Amino acid sequence: MCLAIPARITAIDHASDTAEVALDGVARSVSLALLDAAEVGDYVLIHVGYALNRIDPEEAERTLETMREAGLLAPGDAP
């Protein structure tokens, strides 16, 4: 079983095809190699350092809220 976590893109480096994403106050660099297109502000599903696909912002927030309820994110943490 694999787990992909939604995160919001905060910056894109087109030269290296990577993006910086933010979740729970932590920023990470991820590869955009598996996506056709992505923009700053998009939510993407992240798994092992790769953005797998874009996700609807409402669906991302529902998923993050479920993670908060499960104790995986602190209450009120913004993506």
Summarize the structure.
With 79 residues, this protein is of the alpha+beta class.
Report on this model:
- With 79 residues, the chain is of the alpha+beta class.
- It has a single domain, classed as Roll (SH3 type barrels), CATH 2.30.30.
- 16% of the residues lie in helices and 41% in strands.
- It has one helix and five strands, in the order βββββα.
- A five-stranded antiparallel beta sheet has the order 3-2-1-4-5, covered by helices on one side.
- The longest helix has 13 residues.
- The two termini are 24 Å apart.
- The mean pLDDT is 90.
The domain tally reads 1
Structural class: alpha+beta
Individual helix count: 1
Number of strands: 5
Shape: globular
Q: What is the C-alpha radius of gyration, as a whole number of Å?
A: 12 Å
Q: What is the top-level CATH class?
A: Mainly Beta
Provide the low-confidence segments as ranges: none
Give the strand order, joined by hyphens, for the main sheet: 3-2-1-4-5
Biggest sheet overview: 5 strands, antiparallel
Average predicted confidence as pLDDT: 90
Residue share in β-strands: 35-45%
- Quaternary structure: single chain
Compressed to H and E, one letter per element, the order equals: EEEEEH
**CATH architecture descriptor text:** Roll
Helix content: 10-25%
